[in-house]
Specification:
By secondary structure, the chain is of the alpha/beta class. The chain is 35% helix and 18% strand. The longest helix has 14 residues. The structure holds S-adenosylmethionine (SAM).
């Protein structure tokens, strides 16, 4: 496990947990060697829809996309929109590259690493959607600062969303759920879009299931879905 620390919760290298797993097969290695360089978010400069895709269409940002199935399905649903996905786990990035190749998706750019370092480089008020789906729970109280759902990252997400933009968050973890409600409830930048319990107890339309969510359901866990509108 790596844990880089920084004093500023919005600019830190928030890389905790594993970055690589099983050895890549030759076909997967080829995706990393050939496709990934063409889709990487540039190392420097502002990150805008214009700079990445050559148009100013709506921009979506996914934090920790896992194996990328949610991002790929959303990008396929919304071919005129641009998607940026960040994930430090190499095997996850390979999964996303496979979806991008199989579905021939031209509207995704990837960063293999910390999402917040990329989010910081996006001009304020320019994102239409931010997704944080089943973030690592860090259930022990002494690790609570590592949770993505914390004041610094949430302020950053709020700054980068445009008014009317949407922040989607999902979890199956009761500790994380309570923590997230504490961070988000009454947050001046966000309006919770749930009007009745079914709005957060059932997966909303246009919210594809993630791999982690499917696993949670198989294990009999309840899953909670939150949609917040940027005020
Ligand atoms: C529990 S998994 C969920 C993956 C996926 N969202 C899903 O629902 O299937 C959490 C993911 O967040 C990623 N992650 C952790 N810290 C991150 C960071 N600072 N930036 C981007 N992704 C991060 C992990 O590598 C991991 O793949």
């Amino acid at each position: 496990m790596t844990a880089h620390k920084s004093g500023d919760p919005t600019t830190l290298n928030r890389l905790y947990g594993r970055q690589s797993g099983h050895k890549l097969r030759p076909g997967q290695q080829e995706l990393v060697d050939r496709l990934l360089p063409a889709l990487c978010v540039p190392e420097e400069g502002d990150i805008t829809a214009e700079s990445l895709f050559g148009h100013d269409h709506p921009l979506h940002f996914e934090i920790g996309f896992g194996a990328g199935e949610h991002m790929a399905i959303r990008a396929d649903m919304l071919p005129d929109h641009g998607f940026i996905g960040c994930e430090p786990f190499l095997n996850g990035v390979v999964g996303a590259l496979g979806h991008i190749r199989d579905k021939s998706l031209p509207n995704i750019r990837l960063h293999m690493g910390d999402a917040l370092s990329v989010l910081n480089r996006i001009p304020d008020g320019s994102l239409s959607f931010v997704y944080l789906l089943h973030p690592d729970p860090w259930p022990k109280a002494r690790h609570a600062k590592r949770r993505m759902m914390n004041k610094g990252p949430v302020e950053l997400i709020a700054r980068k969303l445009k008014p009317g933009g949407e922040f989607r968050f999902g979890t199956d973890h009761p500790v994380y759920l309570r923590w997230a409600l504490m961070v988000m409830n009454g947050h001046p930048a966000f309006e919770w879009l749930a009007k009745e319990p079914k709005d957060f107890l059932t997966r909303p339309g246009g919210w594809p299931e993630t791999r982690y969510e499917a696993k949670a359901r198989r294990q009999g866990h309840e899953v909670w879905y939150f949609r917040y509108r940027r005020i």
